[in-house]
Design goal:
mainly alpha; 3 helices; 0% strand; membrane; transmembrane; transmembrane helix
């Protein structure tokens, strides 16, 4: 998954974006 390392590199936008919950779930299942 390319989005996984991307979120790791930039965790700050993920926290501010409403989609952070979806990303968190993806990271949790991954």
């Amino acid at each position: 998954y390319i989005t996984l390392p991307f979120l790791v590199e930039w965790p700050w936008p993920n926290a501010f974006l409403p989609g952070s919950l979806i990303f968190t779930v993806l990271l949790g299942h991954a």
